[in-house]
Automatic annotation (TrEMBL):
The keyword Magnesium does not apply. This is ArsR family transcriptional regulator. Pfam families: AsnC_trans_reg, HTH_AsnC-type. It comes from Sinisalibacter lacisalsi. InterPro entries: AsnC-type_HTH_dom, Dimeric_a/b-barrel, Tscrpt_reg_AsnC-like, Tscrpt_reg_AsnC/Lrp_C, WH-like_DNA-bd_sf, WH_DNA-bd_sf. The keyword Transcription regulation applies. Residues 5-66 form the HTH asnC-type domain. It comes from the Bacteria. Keywords: DNA-binding, Transcription, Transcription regulation.
Length: 153
């Protein structure tokens, strides 16, 4: 559907990315349309999977999750069974905020949010007890310089 999006759809998406709690009336006014067409466009984008579930962005540090680690994983295992076990382990760990399979020397990168270094060690120990990993490197983020969930439309 990406090719089927017009300028109004993109402006609607921009508004929703900025603040999904805005009323339909507010969004319609900002994009130069009326409420019903905006609602219909949003509904169609939801049905097409362009818009996923609505969530809330929570401030991790205000809830005591002060440590953000980027975990680089190298494995010597590339069989389907290992990958399935690794995926299950990641999905079961709420500390894993993001996980990406990479091209290059590093096989996976994980974004892990925990309260402190001890909590990271508990996460690490649990992970390596569930799946065999060749090498793990953990990088502590000292400062989040930029964070956004908005795509450049």
């Amino acid at each position: 559907m990406a090719q089927g999006l017009d300028a109004i759809d993109r402006r609607i998406l921009g508004e929703l990315q900025a603040d999904a709690s805005q009323s339909l009336d507010t969004i319609a006014e900002k994009v130069g349309s009326s409420k019903t067409p905006v609602w219909n466009r949003i509904r169609k984008m939801r049905e097409a999977g362009v818009i996923g579930p609505q969530t809330v962005i929570v401030d991790a540090e205000k809830l005591g999750f002060d440590a953000c680690f980027f975990v680089l994983v190298r494995t010597s295992e590339h069989e389907a069974d290992w990958q399935a076990a690794f995926l299950r382990a990641l999905k079961a760990r709420p500390e894993v905020m993001e996980a990406h399979r990479l091209a290059g020397e590093i096989d996976y990168i994980l974004k892990v949010r925990v309260k402190n270094a001890r909590a990271y060690d508990a996460f690490y120990q649990a992970l390596i007890s569930e799946v065999k990993i060749f090498n793990v490197t953990a990088l502590l983020s000292m400062e989040e310089i930029k964070f956004t969930t908005a795509l450049p439309l």
